[in-house]
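Reminder to self: tokens first, then the designed residues, so the page reads top to bottom the way the pipeline ran.
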């Protein structure tokens, strides 16, 4: 680090580092959970392969699209096209809410197949699945709040003249959530 950097530059660098530490911490949490999933799969009561309902595939497509629309919003912001930025942020929020909807539809599909998450009819397999998906949804809820905050700040004109750090950090976190879900989806779909 250059000691001659301005306070603003140092602050921006610190904010980026804090985000990366947070994302690495979350990655370690999910790595631990998926490792426990692998270790637990040798149990006698483990359900070898749960076919995930198509709703989870749809939700995966939606979250990937939301990453693209959020990135497009940043490009529009940099081009000083504020209305387009706001529309793409609203579209991102709509895709995120559709993602949540299809996640719950996926849960309903699993329950309809006779796999319960808690209670005497549950299994360790479905309990792990429940924890993985709900923990991701908790992080996604934080992401939705962040997108709402970015949208609000965009409406107030906060992001002008290259002042886009908050927007960029939010986008980085959103991409992280996207990649994390794709990893979880592929892991649960193909491990077994």
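Designed residues (192 positions):
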């Amino acid at each position: 680090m250059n000691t001659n950097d301005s306070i603003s530059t140092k602050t921006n660098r610190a904010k980026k580092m804090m985000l990366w530490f947070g994302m690495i911490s979350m990655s370690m949490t999910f790595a631990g959970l998926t490792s426990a999933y692998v270790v637990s799969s040798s149990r006698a009561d483990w359900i070898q392969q749960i076919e995930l309902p198509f709703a989870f595939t749809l939700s995966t497509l939606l979250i990937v699209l939301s990453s693209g629309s959020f990135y497009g919003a940043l490009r529009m912001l940099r081009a000083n096209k504020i209305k387009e930025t706001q529309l793409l942020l609203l579209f991102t929020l709509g895709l995120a809410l559709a993602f949540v909807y299809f996640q719950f539809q996926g849960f309903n599909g699993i329950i309809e197949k006779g796999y319960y998450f808690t209670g005497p009819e549950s299994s360790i397999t479905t309990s792990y699945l429940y924890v993985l998906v709900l923990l991701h949804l908790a992080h996604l809820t934080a992401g939705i709040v962040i997108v709402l905050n970015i949208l609000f700040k965009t409406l107030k004109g906060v992001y002008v003249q290259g002042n886009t750090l908050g927007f960029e950090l939010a986008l980085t976190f959103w991409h992280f959530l996207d990649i994390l879900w794709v990893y979880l989806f592929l892991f649960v779909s193909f491990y077994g």
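The chain has five helices and no strands.
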